[in-house]
Specification:
The complex is a heterodimer of chains A (249) and B (227).
Chain A: E1 11-20, E2 23-33, E3 38-42, H1 49-55, E4 64-69, E5 72-73, H2 81-85, E6 88-91, H3 103-114, H4 119-132, H5 148-160, E7 166-170, H6 178-193, E8 197-201, H7 205-211, E9 214-219, E10 222-227, H8 229-234, H9 239-248
Parallel strand pairs in A: 3-8, 3-9, 6-7, 7-8
Antiparallel strand pairs in A: 1-2, 1-4, 4-5, 9-10
Chain B: H1 7-10, H2 13-47, H3 54-68, H4 72-87, H5 93-119, H6 122-130, H7 135-165, H8 177-188, H9 191-220, H10 222-226
Classes of the chains: A alpha/beta (249), B mainly alpha (227).
């Protein structure tokens, strides 16, 4: 990874608030994520976890405060938002693979459109990442022919194909059957071992404990607690965190 | 019991030639109308997307509502007799018929396609955005193929229905299948037999069109069958 242009942190969020009409979804969020760091965000549903990471690649726009990703400040008027997004891969809860394209073309499309790569080179890169997620033999199938776990791994490969510096995961295992959760988590652990900067919204506490450098707990649009896993699990500081952990562990 | 005399049609080679020519004209105009109507319908549907300027959006909606809420025969007469007066220029009736068909088909197609475009899941667009596709790329690479697949059966039946209304172009003297039937019946006075033959020919043409539509479906949308 070449980061000569990106001295400092991968993500710097300061005083960010987000509104949906009159409803305030996020209150005064401060968050810094360094390169190579793995951050897990958890919290009850409706607490703003997904909204927070969607603000990091402008799928949602914030109304107050600043969001700086890879050294570029994001706003609704950010020019070349594509250049910012190019460095941020995103994996969705419902996979969102393109159903009309083969696995290989799902991975090759953005490279061909965004990076203007020739077909062969795009497919070569696609295969490299399909191998990384251990699914190269499915390349000619359509997403609808794959299991949920396989689809999510393809989605991870697809995001990696633009060779991003940051990966966002929005509840990547929540829509999966239980026996498919582990294959996706293993893929994510493998990715973490390569030194990728990762921000994951997930309720998989085993994964969080094993991989995360920091765990963030959110409730009602606020960051309630932020700590390294050891402290977060053994000695949570806030009542709300304790209740939450009591319910899911 | 009515005495059917189909030989009153077969015995005149002129009648047979008229029927063949009628089938050809009907198919030719409807197919061309279908293709151009689809392109224009696509433009009309795309103009209604939430990102297009509101002037364009309202122009498209007004046009579609205008066409869909007036009779085809009125549109046909307007194009055939009204437009030449406005432009002070005459063109063949076949051209008028084709223009009327395209204008009419496009409004109906636009509504079907709009439904298709709206049926594409929001997550698809977000995934395309997160992969840095531009709006145009997202529309053509991601939204449109799925939109077509989602509404292909509706598009098929809409086209078949519209094809069957094209018999009205015989009113301005275009020698289509309906016109050929009238021509024969006016000469042999066997209206019942003639219109039974016309019905069969229309049914055969519809079967042909449907076969083409399902061929496209099987090839272009095989990812849908696959799941």
């Amino acid at each position: 990874m070449t980061e000569d242009t990106n001295t400092g942190s991968a993500v710097v969020v300061e005083g960010m608030s987000k509104f949906f009409g009159d409803f305030q979804a996020l209150y005064d969020i401060d968050l810094t994520v360094d390169y190579g760091e793995r951050v897990v965000i958890c919290g009850p549903s409706g607490s703003g976890k997904s909204t927070l990471i969607r603000c990091l690649n402008q799928l949602e726009s914030h109304q107050q405060g600043t969001v700086v990703v890879n050294g570029t400040e994001l706003s609704e008027n950010t020019k070349n938002i594509e250049d910012v997004r190019r460095n941020i891969g995103m994996v969705f809860q419902s996979f969102n693979l393109f159903p009309h394209l083969s696995v290989l073309d799902n991975c090759a499309l953005a490279q061909r459109r965004m990076l203007k790569k020739p077909k062969a080179a795009a497919r070569e890169t696609a295969m490299k990442y399909l191998e990384q997620v251990k699914i190269p033999e499915q390349r000619d199938k359509f997403p609808g022919q794959l299991s949920g776990g396989q689809q999510q791994r393809v989605a991870i490969a697809r995001a990696l194909c633009l060779e991003p510096q940051i990966m966002l995961f929005d509840e990547p295992t929540s829509a999966l059957d239980p026996e498919m959760v582990n294959e996706v988590l293993d893929t994510m652990i493998g990715l973490a071992e390569t030194g990728m900067t990762m921000i994951c919204v997930t309720h998989e506490m085993g994964f969080a404990r094993q991989v995360a450098d920091r765990i963030i707990f959110m409730d009602s649009g606020r960051i309630v607690e932020m700590n390294e896993p050891e402290i977060f699990f053994t000695n949570p500081q806030h009542e709300r965190t304790k209740t939450f952990l009591g319910q899911i562990l | 019991m009515f005495d059917f005399r189909f030989y009153e049609i077969w015995r005149e080679s002129d009648f047979i030639d008229r029927l063949i020519n009628g089938v050809w004209i009907s198919v030719e105009l409807s197919t061309a109308g279908g293709v151009f109507g689809l392109i224009m319908g696509l433009a009309l549907a795309a103009a209604q997307s939430s990102v297009s300027p509101s002037v364009l959006r309202y122009a498209s909606i007004s046009y579609i509502e205008g066409i869909r809420n007036t009779p085809f025969i009125v549109q046909l007469f307007f194009v055939t007799f009204g437009l030449p007066l406005i432009f002070n220029y005459r063109w063949p009736f076949e051209a008028s018929a084709l223009l009327a068909i395209v204008l009419n088909f496009s409004a109906y197609f636009a509504e079907v396609l709009r439904a298709g475009i709206e049926s594409v899941h929001r997550g698809q667009i977000e995934a395309a955005q997160s992969l840095c596709l531009t709006r145009r790329q997202t529309f053509f690479d991601i939204v449109l193929p799925q939109a077509f697949a989602n509404v292909w059966p509706s598009l098929t039946s809409q086209f078949v229905f519209l094809f069957l209304t094209t018999g009205l172009i015989s009113e301005i003297g275009v020698e289509d299948l309906t016109w050929s039937g009238r021509y024969i019946a006016d000469r042999n006075f066997r209206d019942f037999e003639v219109f039974i033959v016309l019905t069969l020919l229309y049914v055969l043409i519809v079967f042909g069109y449907k076969a083409i539509f399902s061929l496209v479906q099987r090839y272009a949308f095989r990812w849908r069958v696959a799941r």
